[in-house]
Amino acid sequence: MQKLQDKVALITGGSKGIGFGIAEALLKQGIKVAITSRSLASAEAAAQKLGHDVLALEADVKDFSSQQEVINKMIAKWGKLDFLIANAGVGHFASIEDLSVSDWNDTIDTNLTGVFYSIKAALPELKKTTGYIFTIASLAGTNFFAGGAAYNASKFGLVGFTQAIMLDLRQYGIKVSTIMPGSVSTHFNEHEPNTEKDAWKIQPEDMGQMVVDLLNMHPRVLPSKVEVRPTKTTNS
Fold first, then answer.
1. Residue 124 to residues 65, 72, 117, 120: CA-CA distances in angstroms?
2. Cα dihedral sign, 89-95-100-104
3. Is 167 exposed, middle or buried, given 0-12, 13-18 or 19+ CB atoms closer than 10 A?
4. Looking at the chain, which terminus has fewer C-beta neighbours within 10 angstroms, N or C?
5. What share of the chain is helix, strand, coil (3-state, %, to 5)?
6. 66, part of any domain
7. Radius of gyration of the chain measured on its C-alpha atoms
8. Is residue 1 part of a domain?
9. In the 8-state DSSP scheme, what is residue 94?
10. Residue 226 DSSP class
11. Which residues contact 214 (CB under 8 A, 6 or more apart)?
12. Rounded-to-integer distance, Cα 170 and Cα 65, Å
């Protein structure tokens, strides 16, 4: 089990949902956390709710220079980067007949290219700390469904991308894992989480605990791909 106190983590898309749940869990371990959102107001509101010295930053993962600026600001504040949680994602669901070009591009550019940008920008600093990279994929990265052309493509691609860079980065002692959750109780895809109706689903805090558990595994062990499902399929 490694010492997590005073480590430094970046969580993209950390203002709500899975990212927020991971931020809460890391802060409880004494980890310094930066969260990004496309809205500075959303990031700052989340940081206030988290109740710690969280660095709230406005950034769009679809913009490489934006990701570089995030890293620069973190280094200016804390001098290092230990963990990257590439969490930011979107979902556009429609049949191929109805799927718009803009929705296709937004999905691929956010869920796949955006992760590449985040990791590419962070990598020089992560090499200095022999850090840990997490990508948040989905069970949709191995299970296709009607209406999921864009989302499936982005998540299948993300799983393959993550496994490939895991092999690239082992030589530096950098660990890389992709977490593939099933149904999570979040605002994703304009869903309104409801504690009672969503009680059967994975909760954001469960995802946070999973990241902490993976960080605490022995350095010789690398769970490179982790699938996680709700125990039940409904609340009934």
1. 15, 11, 13, 8
2. positive
3. exposed
4. C
5. 45, 15, 40
6. yes
7. 17
8. no
9. B
10. E
11. 132, 134, 177, 223, 226
12. 26
Residues 65, 110, 180: CA angle, nearest 5 degrees: 125
Span 151-185, pLDDT tens digits: 999 999 999 999 999 999 999 999 999 999 987 87
226 neighbors 179 (Cβ within 8 angstroms): yes
- Residue 196 burial (C-beta neighbours within 10 Å; 0-12, 13-18, 19+): exposed
Active site residues: 151
Domain of 165, CATH number, reads: 3.40.50.720
Within-domain flag for 130? yes
Q: Is residue 234 in some structural domain?
A: no
* Structural domain containing residue 88: 8-228
Share of the chain above pLDDT 70, in %: 94
Q: Which of the residue ranges 57-66, 171-180, 188-197 would you say has the lowest mean pLDDT?
A: 188-197
Tokens 């990031």 locate to 43
pLDDT at 191 over 60: no
- Our count of domains for the chain comes to 1
pLDDT for the residue 234 = 75
Q: How confident is the model at residue 194 (pLDDT cuts 50, 70, 90)?
A: low
- Report the distance separating Cα 22 and Cα 106, nearest Å: 24
